[in-house]
Amino acid sequence: MLLLIPLLPFVGFLINAFLGRRLSKSISGGIACLAIIGSFVVSVISILSLLSSGAVSAEVTAFDWMSSGDLQIPLRFRLDHLASLMILVVTGIGSLIHIYSTGYMHEESDPEYARYFSYLNLFAAFMLVLVLGANFPVMFVGWEGVGLCSYLLIGFWFTKKSAADAGKKAFIVNRIGDFGFILGMLLVFVTFGSLDFQEVAAAAAQRAPEAGTWGVMTIATLLLFVGATGKSAQIPLYVWLPDAMEGPTPVSALIHAATMVTAGVYMIGRNAVLFEHAPTTLAIVAAIGVATALMAGTIGLVQNDIKRVLAYSTVSQLGYMFLAMGVGAYAAGIFHLYTHAFFKALLFLGSGAVIHALAGEQDIRNMGGLKKYLPITYWTFVVGALAIAGFPLLSGFFSKDEILFRTFTADTPGHLLFYAIAIVTSLLTATYMFRLVFLTFHGERRHDAPAPEHPEEQEPVTVADAHGGHAPAHGAHAPAHAVASPAPVLSPHGGHGHGHGGGHDHTPHEAPWSMAIPLILLAVGSVVAGYVGVPHALGGNNRIESFLEPSFEAGAAAGHETAAPAASEAHEPEAAHADVGTERTLMALSVGIALAGIGLAWYFWLANRRVVEGITSAFAPVHRLLLNKYYVDELYDAAIVQPVKKISTGALWKGVDAGLIDGTVNGVGLAVSGAGTGLRRLQTGSVRTYAFALFAGAISILAYYLFS
Amino acid sequence: MDTIAFYIFAAIAILASLGVIGQGNPMHSVMLLIVSFGALAGLYILLQAPFTAVTQIIIYAGAIMVLFLFVVMLLNVPREEPVPLTAAGLLGPTTMKIGAVLSVVLAIEVVWGLSRLGPTWFSQDAEAAGVSSVARIGNVLFTDHAFAFEATSILILVAMVGAVVIARREH
Amino acid sequence: MVPLNSYLILSGILFAIGTAGVFLRRNLITVLLSIEIMLNAVNLSFVAIGRYLGSVDGQIITFFVMTVAAAEAAVGLALVIALFRHRETLSPDAYTSLKW
Lengths: 708, 171, 100
Known about the structure:
The complex is a heterotrimer. Chain A is mainly α. Helices cover 65% and strands 3% of the residues of chain A. Chain A has 25 helices and two strands. A two-stranded antiparallel sheet of chain A has the order 1-2. Chain A is globular, with a radius of gyration of 30 Å. The model of chain A is unreliable at 454-504 and 555-576 (pLDDT under 50). By secondary structure, chain B is mostly helical. Chain B has three domains: 1-85, NADH-ubiquinone/plastoquinone oxidoreductase chain 6, subunit NuoJ (Four Helix Bundle (Hemerythrin (Met), subunit A)); 94-127, no CATH class; 133-171. Chain B is built from eight helices and no strands. Chain B has helices at residues 2-22, 26-46, 50-75, 87-90, 95-116, 126-129, 134-143, 146-167. The relative contact order of chain B is 0.07.
């Protein structure tokens, strides 16, 4: 039964991949949606049966995958409470996005449509494998698989160079992280002798936490965290996520908001016991998380592409989740993951509806006044924005607040600084989110973005030498030179970059029902999803925390008592329940911040637009820095990409491959032919020469025997 | 007595052979070779091998040499200027001359090697002497070596047919 | 009495003369004659050693050698005739078509 959960989308992938060309759109889309919805239904059934059985987890082993000496790796899936939540998110929100995609991608041709859905289903299958895996290698299969699907889907319109480049960039950067993950996995195996999560947790629980030292668990968890930074777009490997917006908007919603990027967070949660024994790593995780959150927040404040703003917002919110994991609040991090999935998917899908309505326009400087044309989109978008800003009583409020509270009361060194940064980032979040809302939907329709120098086929030739691959493939979005940032290359709605420029007079039309219904459902979710985690301070039971708690403990096999010593438990300190007063104060503070942020946005971008331009020109260098994302891409290019290219071309290609290897092979051939040329002179054709040779040999032998 | 005969026959054989290789007229070469064979036949008789001596004369001198003679006369082989058996001639530029030199080397080797051994005498008893009576040879030939005998007959047949086929004039 | 060594020395000399003839003569037929000299030298060795060992096998071998020499001479001469028809010359150095 458990096997069906990843299997159904995989079958959907197979059907669409092999037969898709000949199927009509409704059939291929229908099969894909049926597969994921079926997976959702099976997930619900499995979870219900798990809960009713009272066990902590349920396992299914498909077969013995690798077995060699001490290394025993079965293909095993395990459903526990953490995985239950994750599969509900993946299949539930995944289903909604599949349905949305049937509307959004409708203008593609039939084979392209089927290809899209095959990739989408494959992604869902891999993500489910990742989440349900009972040991590191199975999770890694899913990990790599979603990376692959991310590449395929980002580069879906591969004929467009920036999209193809973005896909490659995502895959390569992910791969760098995966290298760390593999090393961490190997280190775990060498240390604990097993790769099964429960066995590792049980073994780790036997050890003392490595406080303040760089022990083997610290190194292993650090390496695993490197993998997480790649997959979940944290510093230093976040650079692929903004470029990933080249893909279709539902892809951004599913992969880069709701599911794939959360894999890193999930991985830490899955290995909570292990991480709990490496406080140094946790401190680093928290620090990187909060730094990323701040950095992404500042960048998002000035971006002009609607999807870029949301992308940086995702990076920022992921930073929050890592902050939570880093201070030991694993359930809070997962809780935020869950609520974030709702409102971020909603925001992305909403932006997709806007783009769809404007026939490809993505620059918010060319938008405005859409409120009256796209009411459903507008209202759902506002709900999402309020949720992410932390408006009271919406889902984001509960989850973000939980994180802030735990950070404040944590015992991680520097936690107060982290709290301060997190609060500032909250302000930024609210501000840039509502900047987006006001600029997109309110006021009058504008056409402020400068026209592109070249029409639609604007390729990223802004950087001097044309690299393939790892180029800062942000095309027109962040040119190296300051002022006239041309309008972004239009998201090719028909798949070949032929969108209309901004500023047509045709009336934007509201999204079709296939797109509107998921929006509405997600909006409802953004409101109510938080109620599973109402904290005690407000009178709730924080059910989600107690639901997830067994997953973060060692010995999560059925029937294990929780009376283990403190070192073996990874749940939040009990002191959390005591400071109700502190919690309420902090809650008030964050509500105030959220409202302040909304107010700031209203002031600058709704009421007094001119002031913004004044400030922008006054702080032009800062503005440029932020607009160009702190030049991180350029830095990576100069420091890493160019040297690697030079080494590859000069030394490895010309030196080793052409010179050494080809030289050796050719040299063997030359040697043989040279020897042959020499040896053939023996064939004189004269019989007497041969006789002479025989005779000479015979005499030599005779001489040898006579004289020895 | 035997010793003198031996040396006479040996001298004839060597001189005749030298003549075969050393002088130009092919007809004369064939004739000299017949003389050499005759000397060898004498040596066989000295070795108490009369059967071999007789077959030497009949087959070699009588059949093979006659065949050679026929061919020489058929082909009208011209007189050839042989390489003079002098040091200058033997040490000439071509590889062939080196081969000739090597022959000399061979001869020296054999002579030297054999003379290092002490003289080995034949046994003189009548038993050893009478070992090669024709009856005896025939007996061994047809019993112990019967297979080789039969095979040789086939060999001769094949050679005969082969010779006819190869030498046939193409039409 | 003549020792065995003498016969063997004589055989060796004759053999060397034969090989010298193979290398020195420029007439195919004479080359064949030289080969016959070599064969005879070997025959002499066989008979001498057979006599020394008191065995009749020496002569048996010579019997076979002679037979084979006859066959070989026949075929060789046939080849010479065929070659002569082809090239009108009897020099062994003229037949070097299998050269590199």
